[in-house]
Structures are given as structure tokens and as C-alpha cells.
Amino acid sequence: PGDVMEGSGVLTEPHGDFGRYARARRIRWIFAPEECRTTGADPWSIPRMIAGFREILLERAVNHLRTPERRMDAATLFFGVRGGLSGEERQQLVHAGVIHLYSVSGLHVGIFAGVLMIFLRGLPCRWKYGVLIPATLLYVLSTGGNVPALRAWTMISVWAACRMFLYRIPVCRVLGYTAAVLLIWQPAWLYDMGFL
User: Fold this and answer.
1) Residue 33: enclosing H or E segment and its boundaries?
2) Rounded to 5 degrees, what angle do the CA atoms 148, 73, 144 make?
3) What are phi and psi of 85, to 5 degrees?
4) Separation CA 174–CA 150 (nearest Å)
5) Could you tell me the pTM of the whole model?
6) DSSP 3-state assignment of 123?
7) Whole-angstrom Cα distance, residue 180 to residue 173?
8) Residue 37: phi, psi to the nearest 5?
9) Surface-to-core class of residue 159, CB atoms within 10 Å of its CB (0-12 exposed, 13-18 middle, 19+ buried)
10) Distance between CA 162 and CA 133 in Å, rounded?
11) Which tens digit of pLDDT belongs to each residue from 39-61?
12) CA distance 182 to 188
């Protein structure tokens, strides 16, 4: 993250089922690189800073585990790091139907927020929820910021903001507000099966 790259390649328009999937995400062209090289790095790049934070979290979270295999499994489960899975291991997980466990989802974000709330329970109400929103966003971004994790963060943030201002809100209304915010931001998600 944060590297400046130059490359040459071919732009192609996606077709078929993938074309519909891409258009729903406002992707009009796919770039197929033929040659790429790194020409520099931006030390103040936000993605670079988030990646550095992720490395610190990973080191602290998995350092106490004894074997490299267990460290890699923990990094994959909690932060979505897939670099430690070989092609054969990935295929075994796909065939077993559990590859989704190795992708950070809304469940992971909810667990993170719940554990964080336990640690923050001694703080005053507004501080607790005020810390929860940015801390959870930092976790989501450090795991790659995929769409399900961002949706979960948005829902947690709407709920926490309401609680921070002492406004009790039913869960169904939080879900409705979250859907409205996300559809204003990305209207094409309405046609995405994963959104419904």
C-alpha cells in the first residue's frame, strides 16, 4: 500500500455474468497489466499507515502462539490475511465449504465491537460509544475494508451514535437507517444479492 506504480496493459470491458456483477459495482473496465514496476513510495499514504497499524496489531495478536501455522491461521481468521494459505490449502477449504471463515465479515466486526465494549465498560457512556466508532473503523480498514465489514461498521456506528446521544432506537430502525445510508452512498447495491 502506498507504492507508486507504472504499468502498461490492456483495458477490457467485462461481459456475461461477471459484466453484470461489475456494472452493479460501477466497474466499467478491467485492466489486465502486461508490465508493472514500482517507481516510488508515498510514506504519508493513508493505506500505508493502515497497513503499518495492521502489522502492529497482527504482531501483538499472534506473537504468543507457538507455531508459525497457528500464527498464520489466527492472522487469516481475524485479519483476513490470506498470504499464508497455499493453493492446495485454499482448494481444500473451498471444497469443505468453509473458505468464507477466512474472509473478514460482519460477524468478525461485531465480535470485535463486542469485545471492545467489554474493555470500555468503565468509561462514561458518550466516551465509550465515541471510542467504539473510530476504533471499529480502524479494524475494518486494517482488514482490507471489504463491503460486508463496512456494512457492519455502518450499522454499529449508527447504533453507537444513537446511544452516544442517549437516543434509544429499535434494532429494526438501525437496520433501516443503515440501509438508507448505504444505498445513498452506492445505489447499485440494491440489486446485489449480498446486500439483501
Assistant:
1) strand 30-41
2) 30
3) -90, 125
4) 15
5) 0.70
6) coil
7) 10
8) -150, 150
9) buried
10) 11
11) 887 777 777 787 787 788 778 87
12) 10
